[in-house]
Amino acid sequence: MFLSLLFMISTAGASPEFSLVDEGTPSPIEGVVFNPEALSEVLTAPQRVKEECEIEWVRTLEIKQNDFTLELEQQVIRYNSLNRKHNLMIIEKDTEIVELQKIVKKQAPAYKWMWLVGGVAIGGATYYGIQQAVK
Questions:
Q1: pLDDT score at 58
Q2: Are 1 and 54 a contacting pair, CB within 8 Å?
Q3: Which of 1, 16, 19, 86 has its CA 20 to 30 A from that of 7?
Q4: Which residues 6+ apart lie within 8 Å of 117 measured at CB?
Q5: % of the chain exceeding 90 in pLDDT
């Protein structure tokens, strides 16, 4: 934008002509007189600069909007990927838990009575051994 403003100033001073008219010359007032090209440049410059700024602003806004849209899409893709990975891990863990529960249920009834009888026997033998050692 600065470059376009500099270009506008340099072209305004280069091609259009202007001349100063002093009081007492054929002009009734003191001031600056522009030829038609210089006058059109002076009159249209503010509107042109405003339009150039608006065009640059709209272009910059569209670029930022596209950047943010792309970033949002990337984050949505990342979220979906992580969500699928999480769900897959949960399914794997649930399957593992079910399989381990099946293994425990298979082993538990077969050895349950043996562990009970062995524990009572060892406990009784220990108690009897302690009583004999104390006497």
A1: 96
A2: no
A3: 19
A4: none
A5: 52
User: What would the mean pLDDT of 57-84 be, rounded to a whole number?
Assistant: 97
CA angle 61-67-70, nearest 5°?
Answer: 140
Rounded CA separation 6/8 (Å): 5
Assess whether pLDDT exceeds 70 at residue 82: yes
Provide the token pair at 66. Answer: 């596209």
Strand partners, 99: none
For 48, 59, 113, the CA distances from 1, given in Å and listed in that order, are 12, 12, 90
